[in-house]
Write a structure and sequence with these properties.
This protein starts with a helix and ends with a helix. Helix 1 crosses helix 2. With 63 residues, it is mainly alpha-helical. The longest helix has 23 residues. It has one domain. The protein is flat.
């Protein structure tokens, strides 16, 4: 892997993260307020699941 791949991946994450607040700010705000109500353990498990899914997807895509 070279640095260009890493920066391209980071740029893609930023684009994807910005889609929802751009397309529907009220929906994004409502969901963010709900996330603030979740306990830390639940947020950690969501983060762990997201990282795991990302690793599996990366493995499948990159072989």
């Amino acid at each position: 892997m070279n640095w260009a791949d890493l920066w391209a991946a980071i740029a893609l994450v930023l684009v994807l993260e910005g889609l929802l607040p751009f397309l529907s700010p009220p929906f994004y705000r409502r969901n963010l307020a709900q996330l603030l109500q979740l306990p830390d353990r639940t947020l950690r498990l969501l983060g762990l699941g997201s990282m795991g899914l990302g690793l599996v997807l990366l493995y499948v895509v990159r072989g």
